[in-house]
Each structure stands twice: as C-alpha cells, then as structure tokens.
C-alpha cells in the first residue's frame, strides 16, 4: 500500500511519500535509544511541562489538524475537531497525574519484616523505546492515548502510522518537537507494514502497542513473542447493544444511531449488533431505522454532515460484501444497503433485521454504517447472543432493572459494560478487550503501567 493522502470524498491522490530507507530507519532507532538514556531520568515536573506545552500547541492547531484528518480519512469535520480536543484533554490528564499514578508503593512493615527486610518498595521504571503501530480511523487519538502515558512514564515513542494518514503522522512528530521534547523522544517512521518486523526485532525497541485489525495484531504479537517483548493489543470489536423492556426506548434508539455511525461507523467500539427484547423490538426497530434514514450523508467538510465517506474503496467493498452475504442468506433490509450516487467512497446508513449466526456479519466486524438487529426472548438469550462473537471489546446495555444490570456486568464477555449510554473512552478509565479484541489496557493508571518495569526494591534489615 503506498504511503499517500488520498481524499476519500472524491478519490483524489493529494500527496505521496517515499518510505524510509534502511539507513534512515537505523538513524532514527539510534536517536530513540540515545534520547531514552537521558529522558528516562527527567523529572515528572519537566515531562509534565513539555506535555502541557504540546497540548497547548495542539489546541492552537485545532482547525488545521482537523482539516488534515478529514482530508486523509474522511472524518466529518465536527468530529475531527472533537478528536483534537479530546487528545489535548488526555495529554493534560496524564501530565497532571502521572507522578501520582507511578509513585513508589511501600509494602506493609509486617510484610517487609517477614521477608527479612527493613523496607520494601515497588517502583515503576520506564522500559525504553516503544513501537506504536496505529490505525487510520482515529488518527490523532489512537496515537495520543499511547504517547501521553508513555512519555510521562519516561519512555520514548516510535510511531508507525497507517499508510493513508501520513500528514497526520508527520504532524504528530512535529508537535512534540515544537513542544520542546528532546530530539528522538517521539519519531514517526514512514514505513510500510513489511518493515514493522525488522523494527520490532531490533534490540533497542523494548515493547510494542498496536491498535488495528486482528491479522495485524497476530503478526505483531507473533514477532514480539519470539523476541520476548511486551505488547498491548487493541483489535477489532463487534460490540453488542442490548435493549431490555424497562429501557427508555426513545433515548435508547436515539443513542443507538450515534453509537453505530460515530466516525461513519468506522470504530472498534461502535455498537454493531443490536439485541432487542421481543417485547420492545418493533418499537425500537422503527425508531432506530427512522434515525438512521434521517442522517445527512455528504461532504465531510460540511458542518452539517453526520456520515462521511468510508476511508477507502476497499473498505466500502468489504462492507458491501458483508451486507450482500446477509441479504442473500435471508436478512431483511430495513434501510440502506446501497451506494449513494456520485463520487467518493460513500455507503448509505443501513439496518439489517433477521440476522442469523450463519451470516458473515454475525461473526465479522462491519466497519461502516451498517447495523445488525437481533430479537431476544429474554435476558438469557440476550446474553447468549451478545457473547456469541469472537470479539469482546465493549458492550452497551439499556435497562432500569438493577438485577439485570448486575447480570450483564457479571456475564457479558467484554472489556467494558456501559449501562444506559454508549461506549466512549476517557483517560481516567481503563480501555481494552478480551477474546480476539486483544489484551492489555490503555488509559488510566493501568495504561501508564503497561510499559513500565515494575521493580521490587528490597532493603536489608
């Protein structure tokens, strides 16, 4: 895949970039190792000062960087600006809290004494250069939610971004440079996927994090496992959205539309499978379908646009194949299931009912504005349908029954359970999944500790 900016709203190639050669990759790896030797000893106050400065610059650049993201991957411009604001918020959150989150932990005196020590501490130390392999769908946020905690912990970053968002990738390197981070602390590697293994196997790279597809995660995890290097993986998701009879159906349906089409449906944590109790199925389906049909699809630079183009022609073709397979196998189209007229990689917001386990869409992630509706007879069937997926990233549950809330929180196989609301990441709370959605956690204190050497410091009596 070429490293290029291709506007998905019209298919026009705007900029192309040459991949880094072996000599430049080596120079950057050496720079990362050199930077780490000194940056690891900087104070939390100094790191926080630099990260706050980066957040300030990001906010100053909000309009320009939002337009770059929209041009590169088609995100509606309002959502692009919101992504910039969210990134700045996360940077400040970690700048203000990292020292506390990584403070030394002193063991109880009784336990220290039992081990023959006068004192025992647990200390969090940085690992070194961390390789981040990041996707195009949230081209700023996915990187910042890794970079902010990693830099505050004293690590340095090497970014291999998706090949269709090179301008965003280069902007990020420039952002941290302008903020005053030492040379080599954060570098963008304009390389193809074929070079990831070489970089990851380099002894100077100590760990890796990847957000992306399951095949990409398997490839990185395999290499990292062979090299015995720590990884965090956030892969695909096919999140359930369960609606029970006690729910506020109007609110659940309105929120469901946003939960399905955020980022034009190209989000791992977007709700994709809508599992509705039979007693309220018809009422929910009617409201939900009407909401999906009413969405404005169009130019992502238009302030009123709610659904933009898919990021690539291949992405649209893959989505169409899932829909066509479901329809051929008996799914009912309640709306959409077609390409709008005109240029660009658009696909109409789509709702499919009568989805069954033999359809590909039941097992595979629909990465676009396509929703699958299921009818559940009771709570047990709702949980069974929700868990009948290879993925387990997050989940959404709508009910006013506290006993049902407890059951869903206990039994849903997912990294998150959002009750009477839609899944959304926040720097204060851990984010990640189970099953084929990956392992490890990002954000919160859990996320910043993922790339730390958790060190026991034992003092003799």
Polypeptide structure, described:
This protein has 461 residues and is an alpha/beta fold. It folds into two domains: 3-235 and 437-460, Aldehyde Dehydrogenase, Chain A, domain 1 (3-Layer(aba) Sandwich), CATH 3.40.605; 239-426, Aldehyde Dehydrogenase, Chain A, domain 2 (3-Layer(aba) Sandwich), CATH 3.40.309. Helices cover 42% and strands 20% of the residues. Strands 12-13-14-11-10-16-17 form a seven-stranded mixed beta sheet, with helices on both faces. Helix 7 (166-179) links the parallel strand 6 and strand 7 (186-188). Helix 3 packs across helix 4. The longest helix is centred in the N-terminal third of the chain and has 25 residues, at 77-101. The N and C termini lie far apart (61 Å). 51% of the residues are buried. The model has no long low-confidence stretch (mean pLDDT 98).
**Count of extended strands:** 20
Amount of helix: 40-55%
CATH superfamily of the largest domain, by name, is Aldehyde Dehydrogenase, Chain A, domain 1
Main CATH class of the largest domain: Alpha Beta
Provide the domain count: 2
Strand order, main sheet: write it out.
12-13-14-11-10-16-17
Biggest sheet: strands, sense, closure? 7 strands, mixed
Q: What overall form do the CA principal axes indicate?
A: globular
Low-confidence stretches: none
Task: Give short descriptive properties of this protein.
single chain; 461 residues; Aldehyde Dehydrogenase, Chain A, domain 1; Aldehyde Dehydrogenase, Chain A, domain 2; 6-stranded mixed sheet; 16 helices; 20 strands; 42% helix; globular; aldehyde dehydrogenase [NAD(P)+] activity; GABD/Sad-like
């Amino acid at each position: 895949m070429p490293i290029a900016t291709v506007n998905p709203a019209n298919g026009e190639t705007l900029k192309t970039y040459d991949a880094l050669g072996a000599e430049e990759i080596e120079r950057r790896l050496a720079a990362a190792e050199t930077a780490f030797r000194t940056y690891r000893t900087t104070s939390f106050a100094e790191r926080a000062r630099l990260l706050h400065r980066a957040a300030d610059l990001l906010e100053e650049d909000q309009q320009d960087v939002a337009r770059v993201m929209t041009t590169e991957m088609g995100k509606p411009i309002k959502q692009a600006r919101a992504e910039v604001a969210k990134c700045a918020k996360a940077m400040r959150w970690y700048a203000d809290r990292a020292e506390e989150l990584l403070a030394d932990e002193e063991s109880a005196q009784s336990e220290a004494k039992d081990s023959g020590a006068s004192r025992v501490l647990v200390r969090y130390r940085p690992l070194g250069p961390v390789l981040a392999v990041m996707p195009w769908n949230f081209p700023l946020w996915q990187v910042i939610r890794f970079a902010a905690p990693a830099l505050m912990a004293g690590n340095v970053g090497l970014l291999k971004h998706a090949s269709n968002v090179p301008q965003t990738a280069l902007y990020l390197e420039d952002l941290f440079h302008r903020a005053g981070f030492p040379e080599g602390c954060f570098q963008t590697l304009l390389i193809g996927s074929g070079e990831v293994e070489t970089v990851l196997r380099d002894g100077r790279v100590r760990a890796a994090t990847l957000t992306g597809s399951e095949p990409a995660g398997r490839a990185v995890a395999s290499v990292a496992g062979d090299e015995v290097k720590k990884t965090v993986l956030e892969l695909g998701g096919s999140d359930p959205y369960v609606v029970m009879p006690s729910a506020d159906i109007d609110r659940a349906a309105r929120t469901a539309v946003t939960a399905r089409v955020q980022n034009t449906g190209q989000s791992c944590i977007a709700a994709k499978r809508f599992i509705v109790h039979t007693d309220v199925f018809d009422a929910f389906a009617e409201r939900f379908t009407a909401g999906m049909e009413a969405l404005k699809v169009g130019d992502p630079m238009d302030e009123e646009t709610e659904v933009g183009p898919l990021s690539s022609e291949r992405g649209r073709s893959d989505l169409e194949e899932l829909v066509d397979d479901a329809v051929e196998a008996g799914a009912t189209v309640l709306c959409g299931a077609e390409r709008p007229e005109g240029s660009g990689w658009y696909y109409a917001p789509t709702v499919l009912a009568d989805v069954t386990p033999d359809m590909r869409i039941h097992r595979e992630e629909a990465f676009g504005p396509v929703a699958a509706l299921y009818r559940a007879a009771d709570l047990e069937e709702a949980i069974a349908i929700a868990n009948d997926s290879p993925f387990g990233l997050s989940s959404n549950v709508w009910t006013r029954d506290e006993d049902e809330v407890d059951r869903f929180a206990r039994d849903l196989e997912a990294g998150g359970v959002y009750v009477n609301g839609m899944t959304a990441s926040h720097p204060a709370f851990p984010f990640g999944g189970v099953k084929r959605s990956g392992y490890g956690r990002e954000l919160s204190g859990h996320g910043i500790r993922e790339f730390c050497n958790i060190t026991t410091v034992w003092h003799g009596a």
